[in-house]
Amino acid sequence: MNLPAILLAIRWLIWETIRQSLATRIFWLMLGVSVLAMLFCASVGTVDLPRYPIGDTPERLPPNDPQARDPERVTRHGVDIINGQVTLLFGAVRINTTIYREEAIRWLQLVLAGGVADTLGLLLALIWTAAFLPGFLEPAAISVLLAKPVPRWSLLTGKYLGVLVFVLLQVGVFVVGTWLMLAVRTGVWEPRYLLCVPLLVMHFAIFFSFSCLLAVWTRSTIVCVVGSLAFWVLCWGINYGRHVAVIAVTEHAEAAVGASWALGMGYWILPKPFDLSYLLSQTLGASDYFPIASELQAVERLNSLSLGASVVSSLLFAVVMLILAGYEFLQAEY
After folding, report:
1. The whole model's pTM is what?
2. Which phi and psi (to 5°) does residue 271 adopt?
3. What is the pLDDT of residues 194-218, one digit of tens each?
């Protein structure tokens, strides 16, 4: 089997996955969620929020600050008094704020990306895509492809990439659509928000590799759904627990040494959803609007948190899962 034929088979499987998502209505379901988010962003507005000054570090005061009672003196020293609102649902909901317009929109983007897409969106994507591989691996469905001169590993690779392309399309619609709506409504064009697309897809790809292994082993959609969600919760707990244990050890808690070692092993072997979410939030400048968790602050002070190493080790885990899934698929009898 030559390389062009293998690439052709992979390309066909990617397209077949998109068609499967259309046939099962999963494509339209996820697109509907994105459309609702875009409609929400289209309802956002701002009232009396000045633009962020260019070329200078601005100084500001909330209107209730005692120093703001002398507007002429404050203006003379170049200090802005901000007393504006962010409106939602075309003005039905009004939120008073004392930050610049760009900061208000970046805060909203952070809520959309970090709170909605990165956690809830990831878990829903794992649930909605869980049936793609088990259905594909059923004997009645896979036997036709196995009869063709195509390596088995290329079939599994094509299907896995097909799901990733499908998720990439959906994430792209969500992120770019909400970004455009907020920009048109408020005039704030924040390019960092677009970095959410590769970060969200990477997060999904890591955990979908485990779902892929479950699908090859069991060919059960229920096992893929429950197993993937339980595995994400387990990884999140170990990820967060390791950071807490590192802090406990530095405070001379001798009883925590053993737990720290065990959690450290699990931390470096398994994916790190807590760190991946932190990477996304810091990419969007979350520390400007939300206080960093005390655990993360302490771990960073101890130089025990490397987001680069977290990403690389999580990706290596995904590669190992795909290799194991490929090996199991090669050994399976149909």
Report:
1. 0.86
2. -65, 160
3. 999 999 999 999 999 999 999 999 9
